[in-house]
Backbone:
């Protein structure tokens, strides 16, 4: 059958699908909820691994994109669970209607006041079933509309990320940095204008003069953000009073839900997680202990084996990130390659980049430079470390070494790593990556 939307046959077919769509809705909701729940931990782990392997500015953008993805995930779960509950209530109501028909208020034998009030508010059982059907359909459609709106936000993040990469790769060129800066500012203004139009439910499209000025932005961004895919659904919501009302309350409703679900009671003004990586705070995120059992844990700068050490050696892991390699290349020009393989790569990028053959001598020189810039201290004692490249059990890339603790006294000690980094003036300076406590009580 041809999809001629003006033909009666096509409309009858759509009407039939519309009446029977609840079965597909239940199936889709069930499978999607299951998939969304199972994707939360892998998504967090993937975002965490990327954030901990790039520089802090890029990591902030990746974390922002991850936040959008997680928000979409949680909103979808919430919407589809509500949809399943309402659809279940709808099925129950239909079954009850088959058994007992409509509500006969006179049979309830209530007073005139309550009989009049209930018959006015409820009207009939069929109306109640119709309302449930409307809300089920609206919530189901809204759920997947949010997915595509979230996709638009991800595209915006990708554009900002690309501009940030271009800027970071051309810090020596003031012209390029300025051009990228102007592009970011212009893009931010465009996004703000579109946000005002979205929250105002098309307010910029109503005035003839403003609409003429806004149309080029709207036309270009509709393709950039892929909003032309979900635009018919959005406008179908906006041309209906009930749908428009739901869209209007959508954002404050989700903000309220997010606020209620993140309520917590602060127990102390001093003992807080912000004090992590200090000599007075034994944060779980600074110790490798248990990483084998919890493969989703990733470390930002470094970690040691455990907080209570009973052996004569201490495992130390220094995480690899783009900033660390940049410092190494700055300090050792011989390691710089004309064909830099770092950055985002795809299968097609191999067509334009020549593979760099592994050079063991270069890698030894790389590790030698790394060991010259990373200083380990326990209390005031400096250890001559000898980092080698490794991967943790969770796949995180980094460098590790083992320290000999035989000469260390029993009791509490402070572990510290100092490494070279760049400041705002692009000068190389020493920076303390972190300071954490541990206890040394050897069994022998």
Residues:
């Amino acid at each position: 059958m041809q999809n001629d939307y003006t033909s009666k046959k096509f409309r009858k077919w759509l009407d039939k699908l519309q009446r029977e769509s609840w079965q597909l809705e239940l199936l889709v909701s069930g499978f999607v909820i299951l998939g969304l729940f199972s994707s939360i931990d892998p998504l967090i782990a993937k975002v965490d691994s990327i954030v901990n392997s790039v520089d802090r500015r890029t990591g902030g953008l990746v974390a922002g994109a991850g936040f959008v993805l997680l928000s979409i995930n949680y909103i979808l779960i919430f919407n589809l669970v509500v949809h399943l509950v309402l659809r279940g209530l709808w099925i129950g109501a239909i079954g009850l209607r088959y058994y007992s028909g409509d509500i006969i208020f006179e049979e309830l034998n209530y007073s005139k006041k309550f009989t009049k009030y209930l018959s006015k508010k409820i009207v009939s059982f069929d109306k109640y079933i119709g309302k449930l059907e409307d809300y089920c359909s609206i919530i189901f459609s809204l759920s997947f509309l949010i997915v595509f709106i979230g996709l638009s936000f991800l595209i915006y993040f990708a554009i900002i990320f690309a501009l940030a990469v271009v800027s970071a790769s051309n810090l020596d060129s003031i012209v390029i940095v300025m051009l990228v800066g102007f592009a970011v500012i212009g893009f931010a203004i465009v996004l703000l204008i579109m946000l005002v139009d979205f929250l105002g439910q098309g307010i910029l499209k109503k005035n003839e003069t403003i609409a003429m000025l806004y149309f080029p932005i709207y036309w270009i961004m509709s393709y950039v953000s892929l909003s032309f895919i979900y635009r018919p659904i959005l406008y179908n919501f906006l041309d209906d009073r009930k749908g428009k009302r739901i869209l209007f309350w959508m954002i404050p409703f989700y903000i309220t839900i997010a606020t209620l679900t993140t309520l917590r009671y602060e127990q102390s003004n001093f003992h807080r997680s912000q004090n992590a990586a200090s000599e007075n705070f034994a944060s779980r995120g600074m110790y490798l202990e248990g990483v084998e059992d919890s493969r989703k844990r990733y470390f930002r700068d470094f970690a040691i084996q455990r907080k209570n050490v009973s052996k004569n050696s201490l495992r130390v892991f220094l995480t690899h990130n783009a900033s660390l390699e940049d410092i190494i290349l700055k300090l050792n020009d011989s390691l710089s390659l004309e064909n830099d393989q770092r950055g985002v790569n795809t299968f097609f990028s191999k067509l334009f980049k020549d593979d760099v053959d592994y050079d063991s001598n270069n890698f030894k020189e790389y590790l030698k430079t790394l060991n010259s810039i990373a200083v380990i201290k326990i209390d005031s004692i400096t250890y001559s470390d000898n980092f080698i490249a490794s991967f943790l059990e969770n796949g995180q890339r980094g460098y590790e070494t083992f320290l000999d603790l035989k000469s260390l006294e029993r009791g509490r000690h402070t572990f510290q790593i100092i490494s070279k980094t760049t400041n705002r003036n692009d000068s190389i300076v020493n920076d303390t990556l972190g300071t954490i406590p541990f206890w040394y009580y050897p069994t022998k």
Summary: Residues 421 and 428 are 5 Å apart (CA to CA).
